[in-house]
């Protein structure tokens, strides 16, 4: 491993990855091969997560291509120095920033969107002029195999190195024996803490894209039909195995029954009355996750769904009521198709529930009212948020995506990815044709001038 890491370092230091032409070419080659691999990716994503081709396109391949096209379009502009004004004491200097490549970066991905969550950060790494080590999740093996083929067919492994294996086995020695210039990690908060510790030992900067419980608050004036459709869609898409899926819903007590009715209508419109028979409904990734999720089913009253089938890794879209805030399902990130509905009488009561799991990755509020909108946006510190929507903020590359505190640190997508995978270097360039003596000691008698220039 050490030799492979040395080869990456040497290649980076050769400067080969830095020109605009090189970066653009690699992004264009990547686009071409991903498009050629579309069918293989569909098959793999179906095998790993029972994603339909349409779902795989929208949330994985198309999502990636949209970001890639945006980066190809703007890369030249992003690479330009950005001039800023110069302070009085430095006139007539020029002041600007340049985006410097970081070096050799490591990108680690989870299994729930196995392609998109490895390849989208890769766009930023290539655009930033870096070399990269890519570590896919071992729990989506079919997709990992196709991605490996794509990378190995495109890039020499002293530029982009694809490393398959169990994270807990292969990553610790990689981190202790080598130093990366950045670690970009997407996954659980528990493993995020482990990665952060390894990074701290060598002062490696990190981006941590973690999980958490993303709440949805329904206000009394919310459009319940629209709210139910916009919440049920991401909650049950990919069986709720989505980092920003609404984890639970807080609803005023008097609207609970109406909201549940609307949620059931939405679920049945999406997957029919029998989700197990629906070709549009996914599956739980593995037995371990299935066991964890089905253990939550007894923690409340099942008002819809509740069926499961271990052999098929199926869990029906399920709505739970009567869940207490100290139940396990209200402490863990659910990451599955089980939706607790919690009632509240006052805003403060609802806020108290959210504050038990601070800094969610995303927060959703449904209201037509600017006062409530502002109350909720200012009272829930979260990575991102939507008003009258859920999860769709992730689709806009002009909105940096990431968590805060417990749900992560740093962000990416679009220009934010380029910024994450580059260092903003500040440069002051001063001409030599003028060199006034008031800038040099002794300063006696010059204080009045310095005060005017600096103060
Ligand atoms: P995970 O933390 O188990 O695994 C993620 C990656 O870490 C995998 O590649 C794995 O091999 C590696 N890994 C596991 N144990 C390790 C260890 N001890 N040392 C080093 N590396 C190790 O996460 P997961 O179960 O694959 O994904 C689910 C979690 O990811 C959820 O919490 C979800 O919210 C989060 N997630 C976050 C985002 C986001 O953008 N913020 C996106 C998707 C998923």
Put the structure in a nutshell:
With 455 residues, the protein is an alpha/beta fold.
Question: What this model shows, in words?
Answer:
There is one protein chain. The chain is α/β, with parallel strands linked by helices and 455 residues long. It has 2 domains: 2-210 and 404-427, Aldehyde Dehydrogenase, Chain A, domain 1 (3-Layer(aba) Sandwich), CATH 3.40.605; 215-395, Aldehyde Dehydrogenase, Chain A, domain 2, CATH 3.40.309. Helix content is 42%, strand content 18%. It has 15 helices and 18 strands. The protein has helices at 2-13, 20-36, 38-49, 53-79, 116-127, 141-154, 167-177, 189-201, 224-236, 256-271, 287-294, 347-355, 370-379, 414-420, 447-454, and strands at 82-84, 94-101, 104-108, 131-135, 160-162, 182-186, 206-209, 214-218, 246-252, 301-304, 308-309, 314-315, 318-321, 338-344, 362-366, 384-387, 408-409, 422-429. The protein has a 7-stranded mixed beta sheet with strand order 10-13-14-9-8-15-16, with helices on both faces. A 6-stranded mixed beta sheet has the order 5-4-3-6-7-17, sandwiched between helices. α2 (20-36) runs antiparallel to α4 and α9 (224-236) crosses α10. The protein is globular. It starts with a helix and ends with a helix. The mean pLDDT is 97. The protein binds nicotinamide-adenine-dinucleotide. Residues 108-112, 117, 135, 137-138, 167-168, 171, 186-188, 191, 194, 209-211, 243, 333, 335, 361, 403, 408 line the site of nicotinamide-adenine-dinucleotide (NAD).
């Amino acid at each position: 491993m050490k030799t492979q890491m040395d080869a990456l370092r040497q290649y980076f230091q050769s400067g080969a990855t830095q020109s605009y032409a090189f970066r653009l070419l690699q992004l264009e080659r990547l686009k071409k091969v991903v498009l050629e691999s579309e069918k293989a990716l569909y098959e793999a994503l179906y095998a790993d997560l029972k994603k339909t081709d349409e779902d795989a396109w929208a949330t994985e391949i198309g999502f990636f291509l949209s970001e890639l096209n945006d980066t190809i379009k703007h890369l030249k502009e992003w690479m330009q120095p950005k001039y800023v004004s110069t302070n009085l004491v430095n006139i007539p200097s020029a002041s600007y920033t340049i985006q410097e490549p970081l070096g050799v970066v490591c990108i680690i991905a989870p299994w729930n969107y196995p392609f998109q969550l490895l390849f989208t950060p890769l766009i930023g790494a290539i655009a930033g002029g870096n070399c990269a080590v890519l570590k896919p999740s071992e729990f989506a093996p079919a997709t990992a195999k196709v991605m490996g083929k794509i990378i190995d067919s495109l890039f020499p492994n002293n530029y982009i190195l694809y490393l398959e294996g169990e994270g807990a086995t292969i990553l610790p020695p990689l981190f202790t024996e080598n130093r990366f210039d950045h670690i970009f990690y997407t996954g659980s908060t528990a493993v995020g803490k482990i990665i952060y510790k390894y990074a701290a030992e060598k002062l490696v900067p990190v981006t941590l894209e973690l999980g958490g419980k993303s709440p949805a608050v329904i206000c009394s004036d919310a459009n319940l039909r629209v709210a139910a459709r916009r919440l049920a869609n991401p909650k049950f898409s990919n069986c709720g195995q989505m980092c920003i899926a609404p984890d639970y819903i807080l609803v005023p007590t008097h609207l609970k029954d109406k909201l549940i009715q609307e949620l059931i209508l939405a679920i049945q419109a999406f997957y029919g009355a029998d989700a197990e028979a629906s070709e549009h409904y996914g599956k739980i990734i593995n037995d371990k996750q299935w066991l964890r999720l089905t253990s939550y089913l007894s923690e409340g009253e099942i008002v819809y769904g509740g069926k499961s089938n271990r052999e098929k890794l199926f869990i029906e879209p399920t709505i739970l009521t009567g869940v207490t805030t100290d139940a396990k399902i209200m402490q863990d990130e659910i990451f599955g198709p089980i939706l607790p509905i919690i009632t509240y009488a006052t805003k403060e009561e609802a806020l108290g529930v959210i504050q038990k799991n601070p800094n969610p990755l995303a927060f959703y509020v449904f209201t037509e009212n600017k006062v409530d909108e502002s109350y909720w946006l200012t009272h829930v510190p979260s990575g991102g948020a939507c008003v009258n929507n859920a999860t769709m903020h992730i689709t806009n590359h002009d909105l940096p995506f990431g968590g805060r505190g417990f749900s992560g640190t740093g962000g990416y997508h679009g220009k934010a990815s380029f910024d994450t995978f580059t260092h903003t270097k500040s440069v002051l360039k001063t001409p030599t044709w003028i060199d006034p003596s008031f800038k040099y000691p002794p300063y006696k008698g010059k204080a009045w001038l310095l005060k005017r220039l600096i103060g």
